[in-house]
Structure formats: structure tokens, C-alpha cells
Design goal:
Helices cover 51% and strands 13% of the residues. The protein has 558 residues and is an alpha/beta fold. The strands form 4 sheets. It has a 5-stranded parallel beta sheet with strand order 7-6-5-11-12, with helices on both faces. The chain has a 4-stranded antiparallel beta sheet with strand order 1-2-4-3. The structure holds one RNA strand of 77 nucleotides.
Length: 558
RNA sequence: GCGCCCAUAGCUCAGUUGGAUAGAGCGUCUGACUACGAAUCAGAAGGCCGGGGGUUCAAAUCCCUCUGGGCGCACCA
């Protein structure tokens, strides 16, 4: 049982006895007993607001009720509390016996890399789909954010007891892909001495020319002067293959791998698009109008109906998205998570309509919207247009500031908050990046371990260690933060917010550095040394666990 | 015009799902290595939580409204 749970039980017991003695009229109600961790300036471990919640029902002042409950709490023989104080408008502030906190060290020691894992997922299976960029160019900085967040979220869900499956939906079909093929075709003809006009709105980045060069090196001038109709297929396929491989590589360099890659084109090849539409048609959710085929999404709260097949017979991307989500939903996941950029939020309503139309509850799909990354260089906004070829790639950023710093940076903000990424700042201040603050703490503790070893100190079995020697306020503070880790995993997973771990790490590292500067870990007092080594080893373990979830390395040396 | 998101210290952002006197980092100023790693630490200054109303014992947090920004509103992906 968690500590806040034990406190809650204690308060309910006190309430019950107060009821029996006629001091409180209403019956104990667990919903009214809110136990929380008070803000730092308050000298207590937990606080309950029960007296304030009861004030109106009881018709007495909160402080008066609090005093009553306080009396009963202090009489409780099974209390894990050392002190119960009445404060402010009617808070009961509860301070635990220090020994309650010391137990966490034994738990960390026993569980090691599994410390922090919780079971709220109950083995349920979740699919996280993220990045899913068009394979028409390298990943840019914005994609990095989805990559870092999606990966960390999947790790977080796993730590919380879910099965998490990472998937990349490759949009390898449609007009943009065709445009890519045309762009490479034009560059190729240019290289073999047959200049043709670049397609309007075509892709112009240097990587397009490079692809054309590699093609020329491979096939010579085989396709020189051939019409685009005759060889577009060749150029499109070649470009697609290269771009997909490039994106995979970009992600790999960023430390992220997917469990599966799903091809949009395969949905057409397998007939899945047709099947999905047939399914909807049978349910009367499709109709013809003006030569096009429409999806009746307004039946499910969308603003307007959406075209799935255009007048010219081509399918819209929505058609393949319907088929894709139908496929995902049929695979037996308990729910799906899509991470989309804010520029796609307009599609949420229609995707939810799709889920409902396919006969699934809306809750099966959770779409997380991330605010876009604003890229800044030398204080000037950098336009991120793929077509114009003006963008800074994810690879560039990783090369400049390092994988760990980039990942940590992307996870430093809430997903629905804008992220300003100043490249010059990230480069110039790479040593001041908060990630180093955390990693340094970890490396420092590894160094302490090495130092201890050199001095011939051997850590005893944790059960033999005199934990009661840990009495410094900083030590208690560290143990409390360690104790909070499993709950943090639980709450972050529930909220689907991995960024909370980033802040937790910064805080834990801060307390650790403070402690380190103030107290010596290895001293000539053997018992104290043992106890402190166990403490910092626990801190090290928890840091490594949290960093692991974020996808950031925990270096032993820096 | 309509919809979604955002607005908190000079800057960049947290704020445990409604709790107490709102917190960090950076930047600024002052200090700490003959001790386990100074990529560190200690101290100082910095606020009408965009404005107004409402719900509540209690609002940065929930509701309404206004202002200011971002992003959408295709038979493009």
C-alpha cells in the first residue's frame, strides 16, 4: 500500500471514531479524504483537506473539524505519522516517521531497474503511431519532437504495465510522392544534358539533386530524353526507396526504432481501401454527389461531409486513412494513440467520425496534438518548407547538439505548448543544456562508486546497513523524491505526459548536487558511509530508470 | 467569420487534474575548489498567473466574455 493510501486509511479511522463518539455527524466518505503532497514551503509530508470538505455539511468551521480529527489521529496506535499539525484555513499537515522513508532504499535495491514500474496498464496493449512523415525528404526538426515524445510515451506506458507498440505510417502514395518522382526526373534530365522544366511546386532540396546524381551513376543516360510518362514510375520508386531508407536512418541516429512500418500504398494494393469503403457503404455512410464519393461524417459531429473519392476517380488521403485505421482497430489493441502536429488538428473530428462509423467506441483512438516547433537561427525564424528546400534537418540538429540533448530538449515542454528551438543557442550552450545537469549527476555518482571501490569500501547487503544513520534533511528529501517515482510513472502514464519525467529528473538532480556539495558520502565513519552509498546508489538507479524512459543515456563518465 | 490550442518573473517554461505566502532554469549581481568530478553549489533581486465576470469553504487550474498570439477551416498530404 502506498503511503498516501495509508494516510487516507488513518484519517478514515479517525473520522470513524469521531463519529462513534458523536464528534462528527456525517459518515466517513473516502471521496472526501483528499491526501496530497503540500508545497515545498510547508514543513510536512502530506496534507489532507478533509476538514474543509466537511465544513459545509457539518456546519462548523474547518479549523474546528480539523482539530477534532487531529485529536483522533494522534491517538491512533497504528499511526505511521510522527506529527499531525493544524495549519492555515483547516489543513491537517502530516509528517511521517523518518523510518517510513528509509524503506524506499531497500525497495530500490531489491527492484533495481524495475523500480518505478507500476501495473495500471494490466497488460493492456496500446499502439502508438507517430512521426509518420511523407517520405519526400529528410525529417526536419519538427518531426524530432514527435519522435522523442512518441518514443518516450511508449516507454512510459510500458513502465506503467502496458504493452506498447510503435508504428510508423509511411505515406508512400499519392500526389506528393508523384511530385517527388517528377522532381527527381527533372533533375536527372538536367544532369544528362536534357534540361526540362522542374515541376511547379516540386521538391527542390539538394537531396533531390543528389538522388538524381546517384541514379545517373547507376543507370547512366538510359532514361535520357524519355518522356516523363514513360519513366515516372522508375523515378518515383527509386526516390521512394531512398527517402524511406533515409528517414529510417534519421530515426536510428536519433535513437528511435519502430516495431512496424505500415505502407499506405499497400492498402491500395491489398484492396483494403476498397474493403473499408464497402464496409462504410453497407452501413450507408457513403453517398455520391457531384461525381464524387462522400463520407457522411456529419452524422458523427464533423462540420461537413468529406470526399473520399474525387470526381476524377482518385481517392483522397482520407480513403486510405479510413482503411489504415480500420486495419489498426482490427488488430486487437485496447486503444490507439496518434501523435499529430497542430497543423492537423482539423482532422480530429473526421478521424473520430471514422472510428465511430467503423463501429468502435470513440475512446479507442486518442489523438494527441503537439504544438509546432518554431525554428530560430540567430534570432530569425527559419521557414520550414520542404518544397523550397529551406529547412534544418533533424540529422543536422543531432549532429550539432547531440542526440541526448535534442531528445531532452524536445521533452522539456508540455506537448501542447509551443517549442522554440534556437539552433544557435542549442549549439552555443550545449554545455549548459539541462540534460548535462542531469547526466552529470549520474556520472558523478558513478564516480563516487569508483572512488569507494578504490578505497576498498564494499557495500554490504542493504538489510545490514544502518539506515537510521541517514538523518540529514537533504537525505530525507532525496528519499522522499525517490519514493515518489512510482506514483510519477503512474500519473504521467495516465495523463500521457512524458515531459513530467524531465522535470522530475531536474529536481532530483538539483537535490543531489546540493547534497553532494554539502555532505561527504565517503567518510571515516563506516556505518554512515555504507548508508550514504546505498542512498546515492538508489538515486543513481532511479535517474537511470527515468532517463531510460525518456530515451536519454545515463553516462558513467562525461 | 467559425473551430482547436496557448497567454504565469526580463527570457524559456513547470505547477501533482480545485488547495495554503504561485515555483524552476537561463540571464543579472555577490560569494565557494589543498575534500568523493566546479558540466557543481550557496545567497540576492525579480509577479495584478493577459483583462473582467461567475461556480466553490477554496481558482493559475472549471464555466462565460473580452483582448492578444499560433494553427486549422480542400474533390492537397
Amino acid at each position: 500500500m502506498t503511503k498516501d493510501r495509508m494516510i487516507k486509511e488513518m484519517v478514515l479511522r479517525a473520522w470513524q471514531r469521531a463519529l462513534e463518539d458523536g464528534k462528527i455527524r456525517s459518515k466517513p466518505d473516502p471521496d472526501k479524504v483528499v491526501v496530497e503532497i503540500p508545497k515545498e514551503t510547508v514543513q510536512a509530508d502530506y496534507a489532507t483537506t478533509v476538514a474543509m470538505m466537511l465544513a459545509r455539511i457539518e456546519g462548523r468551521s474547518p479549523r474546528e473539524i480539523a482539530r477534532t480529527i487531529q485529536d483522533y489521529l494522534q491517538e491512533d496506535p497504528q499511526a505511521i505519522s510522527e506529527r499531525v499539525e493544524l495549519a492555515g484555513p483547516g489543513y491537517l499537515n502530516i509528517t511521517l516517521k523518518p523510518d517510513q522513508w528509509r524503506q524506499v532504499l531497500l525497495e530500490v535495491d531489491a527492484k533495481r531497474e524495475r523500480f518505478g514500474q507500476v501495473e495500471i496498464g494490466g497488460g493492456r496493449c496500446v499502439q502508438v503511431e507517430f512521426v509518420s512523415a511523407n517520405p519526400t525528404g529528410p525529417l526536419h526538426v519538427g518531426h524530432g519532437r514527435w519522435a522523442a515524445v512518441g518514443n518516450a510515451l511508449a516507454n512510459l506506458l510500458q513502465a506503467a504495465g502496458y504493452e506498447a507498440h510503435r508504428e510508423y505510417y509511411n505515406n508512400d502514395s499519392g500526389r506528393q510522392i508523384k511530385l517527388l518522382g517528377q522532381s527527381v526526373y527533372a533533375r536527372y534530365q538536367h544532369l544528362v544534358g536534357n534540361p526540362v522544366a522542374d515541376p511547379e511546386d516540386g521538391y527542390r532540396g539538394a537531396y533531390v539533386t543528389e538522388m538524381a546524381q546517384r541514379l545517373r551513376d547507376r543507370v547512366g543516360d538510359t532514361y535520357r530524353a524519355k518522356t516523363i510518362e514513360a519513366c515516372l514510375d522508375f523515378f518515383t520508386r527509386a526516390a521512394l526507396k531512398e527517402m524511406t531508407a533515409l528517414i529510417r536512418k534519421d530515426l536510428e541516429v536519433f535513437g528511435i526504432t519502430f516495431d512496424s512500418w505500415f505502407s499506405e500504398a499497400s492498402l491500395y494494393e491489398s484492396g483494403a481501401v476498397q474493403n473499408a469503403l464497402d464496409d462504410l457503404r453497407k452501413k450507408d455512410y457513403l453517398y455520391e454527389k457531384d461525381g464524387a464519393l462522400w463520407f457522411r461524417s456529419t452524422q458523427f459531429k464533423d462540420d461537413k461531409d468529406r470526399v473520399v473519392r474525387k470526381e476524377d476517380g482518385e481517392f483522397t488521403y482520407l480513403a486510405s486513412d479510413i482503411a489504415y485505421h480500420r486495419d489498426k482497430l482490427s488488430r486487437g489493441f485496447d486503444f490507439l494513440i496518434n501523435i499529430w502536429g497542430a497543423d492537423h488538428h482539423g482532422y480530429i473530428a473526421r478521424m473520430e467520425a471514422v472510428v465511430l462509423a467503423l463501429g468502435y467506441p470513440k475512446e479507442k483512438l486518442r489523438i494527441l496534438i503537439g504544438q509546432l516547433v518554431t525554428l530560430v537561427r540567430n534570432g530569425q525564424p527559419v521557414p520550414m518548407s520542404k518544397r523550397a528546400g529551406e529547412f534544418v534537418t533533424l540529422r543536422d540538429v543531432v549532429n550539432e547538439v547531440g542526440k541526448d540533448a535534442a531528445v531532452f530538449f524536445f521533452l522539456m515542454r508540455r506537448l501542447d505548448s509551443h517549442l522554440e528551438f534556437d539552433l544557435e543557442l542549442a549549439k552555443r550552450q550545449s554545455n549548459e543544456n539541462p540534460v548535462y545537469y542531469v547526466q552529470y549527476a549520474h556520472a558523478r555518482l558513478c564516480s563516487v562508486d569508483r572512488q569507494a571501490k578504490e578505497q576498498g569500501v564494499r557495500l554490504k547487503d542493504s538489510r545490514q546497513i544502518r539506515l537510521d544513520r541517514l538523518t540529514e534533511p537533504e537525505e530525507l528529501k532525496l528519499m522522499k523524491r525517490l519514493d515518489a517515482f512510482p506514483k510519477l510513472i503512474e500519473e504521467s502514464a495516465r495523463a500521457l505526459e512524458p515531459h513530467r519525467l524531465t522535470f522530475y529528473l531536474l529536481e532530483l538532480a538539483g537535490i543531489l548536487h546540493h547534497y553532494y556539495n554539502k555532505h561527504r558520502i565517503i567518510s571515516d565513519d563506516p556505518d554512515l558511509t555504507q548508508a550514504r552509498l546505498l542512498l546515492v546508489s538508489s538515486v543513481k538507479t532511479v535517474m537511470a530508470n527515468a532517463l531510460g524512459i525518456l530515451g536519454v543515456s545515463a553516462p558513467e563518465r562525461m
